[in-house]
From TrEMBL:
Topology in membrane: Peripheral membrane protein
Domain ABC transporter, residue spans: 4-241
Official protein name in the record: ABC transporter ATP-binding protein
Domain of life: Bacteria
Organism: Stappia taiwanensis
Length: 355
């Protein structure tokens, strides 16, 4: 296992990158601690696969260095980096048995058969494959085959990290939940650094102790699931995580206070707020707004049932907002006032939180 450091990393697929958009990865400085469970979360095209390929050695970055425990591995080929990878689609040898598939990465490295046998049986037990070890992989469902891929990723104990690239794509929805929790449990048992790439927030938040959120080739926040929820560093994180996402509203700073739709609101930015240039916004999650006697005047336009909550759509002047209200709680029929929880209401300038 190793601490992985990405030092001033940049990557472009173009020979002569000029403008910002020419870079698939803009400047990245990241540290993955030894034994951590990380998720790399972001929309399609944000640079997740590019980043993984740079860590595994399939791609050389245009700028910057990759360090494993302080050693520069930027020019080392993949087979000398000792990274295990599990891909979106199962990589199994159909003609081999499940046992031989799991044993393959170990035998390939000349591990003696006694150790191979012990490790294969240990991993098979962890991922519930013991009862089918003697079966040929060809006869298994896509779920079963992907379990073998997971097992092959986990079987070596000498890897620096295991990277999972959208590993649950082919898994049946009702099994996804099961495997998601299984992966978390496996991390707790093997304690190898794991990087789990996904564009699905539920997968990221269930698996990871720390989530790295990417957008347009840059990291916009690294944090625990709670930090991402309670204090998004960028409006993108507020939108992307949560359902519904954070409300992001135009805001005016007057006499040292933030105003939304003409009404002053208190925010987590304490003290008098100075003049701010750029695009100034207020961000507040639907969970942190409630109906009150005083506050921002609004009109209820729609109520939808979402299980234990109701999603209430309102308009404050022209601004559309959403609130989450517990099931059964009374909702004003039309005119209402909204109170924002000041500790969870943030000011953003040009997308980034104002500290
Ligand atoms: N081989 C390549 N040649 C040129 N451009 C590429 C290549 N691979 C990726 N890109 C571009 O680099 C950017 C980042 O792509 P990347 O595949 O890393 O994103 P991603 O987050 O993994 O997306 P997805 O979830 O769809 O796989 C995108 O703009 C993409 O079009």
């Amino acid at each position: 296992m190793a601490k992985i450091v990405l030092d001033t990393l940049r990557h472009s697929y173009m020979p002569n990158p000029v403008q910002d958009s020419d870079w698939a990865l803009k400047q990245l400085d990241l540290q993955w601690d030894d034994g951590g469970a990380y998720a790399l979360l972001g929309p399609s095209g944000c640079g997740k696969t590019t980043l993984l390929s740079i860590i595994s050695g399939l791609l050389r970055p245009t700028h910057g260095r990759v360090l494993f425990d302080g050693t520069d591995v930027t020019d080392l080929p993949p087979d000398r980096r000792h990274i295990a990878q599990v891909f979106q689609f199962p990589v199994v040898y159909d003609t081999m048995t499940v046992y031989d598939n799991l044993a393959f990465p170990l035998r390939n490295r000349g591990v003696d058969e006694a150790h191979v046998d012990a490790r294969v049986r240990e991993i098979a037990e962890m991922i519930d494959l013991t009862h089918m070890l003697e079966r040929r992989a060809a006869g298994l469902t896509a779920d079963g085959k992907q379990k073998i891929s997971l097992g092959r990723g986990l079987v070596r104990s000498d890897v620096n990290a295991i990277m999972f690239d959208e590993p649950l794509t082919v898994i049946d929805p009702h099994l996804k939940w099961q495997l998601r929790s299984k992966l978390k449990e496996l991390h707790q048992r093997v304690r190898t650094t794991m990087i789990y790439v996904t564009h699905d927030q539920t997968e990221a938040l269930t698996f990871a102790d720390k989530v790295v959120v990417m957008n347009e080739g840059q990291v916009v926040q690294i944090g625990t699931p709670v930090e991402l929820f309670e204090r998004p560093q960028h409006t993108f994180v507020g939108h992307f995580i949560g359902s519904p996402g954070m409300n992001v509203l135009p805001c005016e700073i007057r006499e040292g206070r933030a105003h939304v739709a003409g009404t002053a609101v208190d925010t987590a930015t304490t003290g008098e707020i100075g003049a701010l240039t750029g695009e100034v916004r207020i961000g507040v999650r639907p969970e942190f707004i409630r109906f009150a006697d005083k506050g921002v005047p609004a009109r209820v336009v729609k109520v939808s049932d979402a299980g234990r909550f109701q999603v209430v759509e309102v308009r404050a002047g022209d601004l559309p907002l959403k609130l989450l209200v517990p099931e059964g709680m009374e909702i004003p029929s039309q005119e209402a006032r909204l109170a924002f929880d000041p500790t969870r209401t943030q000011i953003y300038r040009d997308g980034w939180i104002v500290a």
